[in-house]
Amino acid sequence: MKKINRKKIAAIVFFISAVLFFSFTMPFRLRLAVADITEMRPVSALTPVLGLIFGLPAAAGCAAGNIAADLASGYEISYALLNGAQQLLYGMIAHVLWNRINREHDGSEFCLDSISRLLKLFFVMAVVAVVTVLCTSVTNHVYNISELISINSLYAFLNVFDSGVLFGCPLMICGHFLQKYFDNRINGKKEKIITFSLNERMILNTLITGIGICILVGAAIYITDKMNTENTAVGLWGRIYLFQTLTLNFYFALSMGFIWFTERKISRPVEHLADVAKEYYSGHSDDGSRKKLLEACSEYSDDNTEVGNLARSYISMAEDIGDYVDNLRKVTAEKERINAELNLAASIQAHMLPCIFPAFPEHSEFDVFATMTPAKEVGGDFYDFFMVDDTHVAVVMADVSGKGVPAALFMVIAKTLIKNYAQSGMDPCEVFTTANRLLCDGNDAGLFVTAWMGVLDITSGNFTYVNAGHNPPLIRQKDGRFEYLKSRPGFVLAGMDTIKYRQNELTMHPGDRLFLYTDGITEATSAEKELYGEERLSEYLNSHYGDSAEVILHGLKSDIDSFVGEAPQFDDMTMLMLDFKMKTGE
């Protein structure tokens, strides 16, 4: 935000003050041209109020406006200059006196938000009224306009004092806003100007009510006295003004007691509670701000009023929030610990699966590549490939029911059993039959495993495989297309301990490829609830059959991600590709 120069601000204040003084003076002089009552005008309060708020620029502006008004009214230039000097004096007296008795220097020194500041304003206006009466009386006497002491002296005092209070309070509050605005512009800030406080609103409402009472009293006296034809205009306006001021000052006395009581019992406690609640909120409910809130509320908690109810509600709220925050901290710490353990478990699981490629650099007869993307930190899918002996390589693809830690633990058991029995020399059907029986023992959680296992003889190309309820793999014969390897699947592992599995055989030739996967691939779901499906899978593989296994698997994962979009991953996605390149000895 562009900064405003202080000299420019002073010039603006000077100009506005001069225009306001001149504009508010002339209508009263034109309409009330009787010399005895020319001092009955609210503009008399403009100089001390603006001077009190803005200091020398405002006082000088009012002085210039007064000189212009006097000259326009036909007064001598010496009289106009003397009145201008007096206006400058009134404004500066109010400014200096206010700053001496009201020592706040926090940007709120012109804010009327308490009974003490309102009484200080009454005192300043009373002093300025006395000085105004003295200076005006001496000046008018010197220029033979009026006597030194007369009833007009009382009218002038009441005029300056009452007008200063009635119109000074709103002007001071608006002046406080203007001060904040100009300070923000000078410092280049974008801070929002505060709204009226409860006390400021109460004071403004009191003043508005006072003005209304004055108007009613004046109207009543005017109507009553107008019936008496013997009354002169000066006498009529004098009586109206006298009754109005007496009524107004009596009203002020009663109002000060009411404002003091409401400030002490209502507005100040509410503002205090609002401030500490705001600090409590801005402090994000930390221990220090909560302690301040509880201390502040304890001052009013014994009151049998709405303020007491509010304080007790704040105390209850702070205690509940404190307990909630403490519990949240414990839960968060526990969650962080669990997350750390899950990350460690994910790392352990990742290292349990073979992940170094090329997997068998000493064997040029075949190549294997695999990937797994768990849906959670740890998953239930697993793949495996290992040498059964020097001439046989086994590949395994499995999916444990469920997600998370239970599925991962069950996966470890199943993987270990399958690999151990396979390397012991059992046929694939025997491996699954034995592993199934052991997995059924103690399976109180009711977990099960879909699995597919195949063993390739790299000397002859004979491939023996067994399926325990798993998705059918895809095989591509040399110079052919990927097609699903259909076979009658057996029951899932860990489902029934009496199941015996049957195996199937086929012959693989150099150049053939086998693709294994879990259902997380074909059941990947887009935001429109559409499945990736088996058809898209085979189309992608056939359109990229010439790429390496690594390129195909990474490309397929990217294609699935593009299909799914922003939809979350609900299942683990695991893939494995086996390339049979040549027979041993070729």
Q: How does this model look, in words?
A:
Helix content is 59%, strand content 11%. β6 (474-476) and β7 form a beta hairpin. It has a five-stranded antiparallel beta sheet. The protein has a five-stranded antiparallel beta sheet with strand order 2-3-4-5-8, covered by helices on one side. The model is unreliable at 33-39 (pLDDT under 50). It is rod-shaped, with a radius of gyration of 47 Å. It has helices at 6-31, 46-54, 56-72, 77-101, 115-142, 151-187, 198-226, 233-282, 287-298, 306-352, 404-423, 428-440, 519-522, 533-543, 549-564, and strands at 366-373, 381-389, 392-400, 449-457, 462-468, 474-476, 482-484, 503-507, 513-517, 573-580.
Reported for the largest beta sheet, the result is: 5 strands, antiparallel
- Rounded to the nearest angstrom, the radius of gyration is 47 Å
Overall shape: it is: rod-shaped
Question: What's the tally of helices?
Answer: 15
Strand content: 5-15%
Query: Quick one: how many beta strands?
Result: 10
Strand order of the largest sheet: 1-10-9-6-7
Distance between the termini: 82 Å
The quaternary state of the protein chains shown equals: single chain
Flag low-confidence runs.
Answer: 33-39
Mean pLDDT: 81
Elements, N to C (H/E): HHHHHHHHHHEEEHHEEEEEEHHHE
